Every structure is written in C-alpha cells, then in structure tokens.
Amino acid sequence: MAGDVVAEIKGGGYHFGNHQLADAGAFQIYCRGMLAAPLSQYLFYGTGFDMNFNKRSIAQSMMLAVDPEEKFLWYEANDGGTRFVRGAPLTPEQARTNPNFNNGRVVACSFGPSTQLPLFSYYAVNLVGAYSAKISDYQRQFCFLNISTPGHPATIIVLDDMTTSNPAFQKYWQINTLHPPTVTADGVRLHSQASGHASALDVNMVLPVPAERTVEVLSGDKAFNVFGRQYTPPYPKLPESHGHRVMFSPRQAGENDVFLTVLQVLDGAVEPLPCVTGATDVSYTVSLAGRLVSLAKGTGLIDRPFSLSVEKAGTQVLCAGLAPGLWEVRPTAGRAFACQVQARANTLFFLAPEAGEYHFAPGNGEGMPRLELAEPLPTASAPRLMPGTIELEGKVLDDVKAVKKDREFLVPLQQFLRQRGVAAVEKDGRFAFTLGGHDIVLSEKSPDLVIDGTCLAGVLSPPSRDDGWLFPVAALAFLEDRRCHRDPLSNVLFFSPPEKREHGMLWLFSKDSSNPNQLFGILDDDPAKTSYWAAQGRSAAFVAMLAEETQVQGVAIRWHVGDTRASSFAIECSRDGVQWENVFSGQSSGKTTAFEEYRFAAPVTCRQLRFIGKGNSANDWNSVVAFKVLR
Length: 631
Hints:
5 helices; Jelly Rolls; mainly beta; Beta-galactosidase, Chain A, domain 5; eight-stranded antiparallel beta sheet; 631 residues; seven-stranded antiparallel beta sheet; 45 strands
C-alpha cells in the first residue's frame, strides 16, 4: 500500500523441462497488487491447460511471433512463443553449450549510480536463442526509472527489436493483467488494488504509432484461447482465471518491427507525467520527470558519435547500449569530460551541468577530466510515513496521528476535523460534528454514541477532551463511506475515496469481536475475497445501522466454508435500537460459498438490524465473509 514498485524481467542463460516455463523475456510489475501478471496456474502435470497454456509464452507478458507451420513438440497449441523445451541436460556443460537449452544471452545489466538506492536499472537480453528459427534476431531492453515523486513512483521503458525469418509471421507485443484494462488513445491502462488502495500502469506504446498498429483486449474465455484453441483454467475462483491479455500488433507485415513502450506506474487515478519521445541516428530517446534516456537502436551496441539535446540543467541523462571503452562527452557550451563505459554494463549516467546540446563519441579522453559524480551520490528517495500517519486520497494529513489501543486504531477527532476543514462544537462535556451528511455527538468518557439522534449504547472506547476525542478510525472512514486500510508493515492508514453507500449502511458494531476492520470488511462483496468476520458462541452478534430508516426485504450472506457446513442464525430489526423484533431464524444451506438470500416473511421498516449467530454444524463459530441488506 505504500506505493513501492517491484519489477521483474527474465531471460538469458539456459532453460530445460519439466516445470520451467517458456518465459524468456517475460516481465511482471507489482504495485499494490499485480499490474502486469502471468495468467499461469498449476493443478495437475501434463493436462491440456498445463502444456498448452500454463507453461507457455502465451500466459506471460512477452513477445510472440506466429509461424503457422511451427510445431511445439507433440502439443497442439501454437502460441507463437519461445521453444517449448521438455528435455533436460545430462551435464552442466551440456546445459551451457547445447542450443536446445539456450534461453538467450544477457547483453547488459547495470544500475546506479547508488548501489543501495539506484535511480535506474537497465537490462538488455538477446533472445534469438530462446525462439525457433522463425526469429532471425530479437533483443529486449528493459529500463526501470525510480521516479519517487508523489503519485508517480516509477517508469519502465521497454524496447523490443524483432526480426522474423519470414515477413508474413505476425508479431504480437503482449501484456497480461488481472483486472479489466482501459483502452486509451496511446495504448492501454492496467489497474490494481490492495486493501482498497489503488494503482495503475499506463502503457504508452510509442512505436508502432497508433495508425500502424492494432490492439486487442482478450477477456473471459477469450483470454484462454490460443489462436483458435480453447483451454479452461483449473481454478475458476483465482484472479488469474478472470485475467486479460492485451495484444499489440503491426498492421503491415514486415521482417523487422520495433516496439517502444513507456509504462508509468501511477497512484490510483493520477494522470501520467508528460513524456516526450524522439530518436537519433543510433538511439531512441525518452524524456520525462527531469530524466533523459537514450536506448540503442537495433540489437548491437552504439560505437559511433551521436548527440542529445538536454532541456534543463540538472537533468539525469542515461545512455544505454554503448560499446565499452572511453567515451567523450562535449556540451555545446561548457566543459567536456570523459567517461569509462564498462563491459556488460554498457551505460553512461550523469547529471547535466547545463542545458544544451551534448555530443558523445568514443575517444581517448586526452586532456579531459574523468566523470565523477559528487558525493553523496544522487539516490532515489521517497518520504517514509510514520506509524499512525493517515493518508486520505493520496494526501498525508499533517499533525494527525492515530494511536493503537488493543487491536484498534483511534483518531483524535479535533485534529482530524481541523485538517479536513470540518466544524465541530465542544460544549458541556460533549463533542458534536457533521460528517458525510450525518450528525454525530460524543460525550466525555462515555461509550455511547449518538448518530442522527439515535443512541448507540456501548459502541466506543470512552473518549475525552484530554486525548482529543479519540474515535475508531475504521468507523470514522465509514461515516463518509470510505474504507480505512492499514499497511501491515508501516502501520500507515489509508482512507479510500468515498463511495455511494449502495450497501445502505452507516455503522457496524459488535461486542463479540474486537477487530473492526474484519467487521466493516463484510461489506466488501469482491468474489475473490477470503477474509471474514468471526465470533465464537451461540449468541454472537453484530449490529448494522442503516443510513436512513428503510424498508428491508431480507439479507444476503456469504459464509466462510459455506459449502461444507450449515450456519444457524437469526435477524432482528429495530427502529430505535430499544425495541427489537425477530424477523428471521434459520440455517444456511451448507452447499455454497456464494451469497445466499434469506427473505423475511414480510418487509420490515427499520433503522437497525442485528445479526445473531448460533454456531454451525461443525462448531460454535460464526464466520461471515460478506453481508448485504436486501431493500
């Protein structure tokens, strides 16, 4: 939830069966959940899905090239991916030298300038050896930029240069994801969410330009269709089974195609940073966020002069794909310097002392000072939030710090409301305010709470003026139909954007469970959700207060392990929280983990509902995954 980004790319070395995947060149990207993700899942070895999708390139974010006549051993699917190797070497020497096990060749690997907090990471791999003879040449360059600015943690530049042995072989640049993508003018945007905190990956395909490419989003069953052959994933409830494949392809057939893609990791709905792309005779350039990156064209290293235009002094300049040796850098105005480019790193990085044209050329550096970055080295950094910090829609609330008591976080209302610009009245031992359209009153050192004139008895840890009127953070967020999510490592609290209160509820409370996050979590009806509220006993209860007095038809409940045990329970309704009426008593079916509806004998008008759990057919636990009021 803190916005850290993890990116992985594979390829190079050797590869063999049986459980290794055909994934040379594949990448994955994580930020608050998987953004670029494989759709593989494994149940039994050797099934149709396992051998034709799970272990194949089609399940990965990587390049495909389809030769209609290609055979992948005795398996039916032609996915256009790398060779499907099932054999194994008998000796280490055979693994290194037998072309059957060739998984590509690492061209370059570099990161820096700081080894602890690098501003960039660069990886280049020639993958021609991983494919069949359908590929004459292919190199993928992968450059990670640690942006570390609010809303924009990282950018990744991917450059693919692929040549096929036959121009008719269709090429596909593929990226897979777990949530429905959004097609944009420049490409596509992928989405993810962890504990209610959202992230996105803006995929800007620079080359081929939009007029010269197609884009197809394959969802549902189509995501598991391998060019006409349909397969079924073994775990229908897993997120991968509901994944999506996004495929970009050139409109015109050709032996050689170049794909230049800029992927910006974003914080939720934040817009991508402005990005300017261009080219020199020997490289492609990408400029954004005070950085200028030059990536070598083709599949070789740059060994001749070229020039770059730097707009501002202090720009971080990264030239990748340079031949090893001494390079001379000559700005149009200013002092020239020389830099040693290391073999297998093949990068040159510096902070431009001034704006203008910079000329690069191999040379002997005679009479030139050597490039030395000033200590301390420039590093990537991001603000570290202290435990109890509250972040609301990407903004840290200064001077507001939640405190933890037992298993619950409490927020001092005085500071919180002041930061929000919400008026509050403190008088005669009472603290009153309006939030989310609802009137709230607390009393000094009393566990009771008044919402819209209705008293909820015993729902608070008694607050006082001395502690700033501490209030449960999960409930505070819920007053505006937000969710509060806690980062388990940092204990930073994130408030999600307000929703539309379609569930109709305003407050949840249980004296039988001390975990408010689990209780409020039952309003999340995500089908993939596995967390649940649980309380033990034959009369374990929670109370749900509706946002307004409403006619209720019944309730719907998803039970934990509801397909193996039947749960007994009752529902009571009240208008004032004093007089309660039993409107339902019964059992779940014990046959499903999906929602089951329990209709009342007649509609009931009420403001509060009380769930009373009476155990289940296996024990006396009451475990609810999700809960809905049917109106």
